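Please describe our next protein:
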Amino acid sequence: MDWKRLIGVLSEEKAVYTELLELAGEKRAAVFEKNIERLDAVVRREQGVAARLSHWEKQRLACMGAPEGSAEPPTLLFFADQAPPEDGERLRVLHDELGGLLRELTKLNAENKTLIESRLEYVRFALDVLNAEQTSGLYGSRYGSTPPDSGMVQKTVLDKKV
């Protein structure tokens, strides 16, 4: 086993996860600002970073001797126990750092998902209000709709000229 190569690959993966964590923070800011263009740019950057992560994950599996698509490759801690003491210690440190990054990223992504769903729910509500049928009278349909034989054409807010 080439311990230095495995440590190098894991260090690269850690850098990619750190970048994903930064992008998740940017995504949160874009959602709070209601800045669709910025959110789109962040998502596009995330896609590129995810492709890099996929590359490094394949490299990690190859280093660890796990064939692609195998059910359960040995854990990183298993390899840390097999490595020379200095390399084993570095692998344990990387294991802990990657675990912390993944927990933080999972938490932030869950919060971002909730925020985005909340914003989408508001957008759906606003669209429903805009598309609601308008009726005669100042107070809208709360007091009944326009009778079909009244000759008045019902229009939505989007149909009316401003």
User: Anything to note?
Assistant: The CA atoms of residues 136 and 150 lie 10 Å apart. Residues 3-131 form a domain with the Methane Monooxygenase Hydroxylase; Chain G, domain 1 fold (CATH 1.20.58.300).
